[in-house]
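Practice problem: predict the structure.
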Amino acid sequence: VQLVESGGGLVQAGGSLTLSCVVSGQTFSTYALNWFRQAPGKEREFVATISRNGIATNYADFVKGRFTISRDNGKNTAYLQMNNLKPEDTAVYYCQQWQTWGQGTQVTVSS
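Answer:
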């Protein structure tokens, strides 16, 4: 099983990025998918989750209204659309499904 994130980068405050998470080695549609992030010197924290069929989503309070999680089961891919980014969103973003984590993608938001 492998999860591979992409789409991170450097963006100015107020900007947008879309992260992708491609899953291989397991039936993608079987499990919910989660996004987490970890900022320097801080613990990893939950960002968002999406159900197996994509109908149900849930977000951490600090991203509600700014981030949108989605998935395409036909492409074995999940997404995290991030709008109105803030410097405090700077972190390594990880996707996670069942017991497997991706390697992370760095998001840096400059002020």
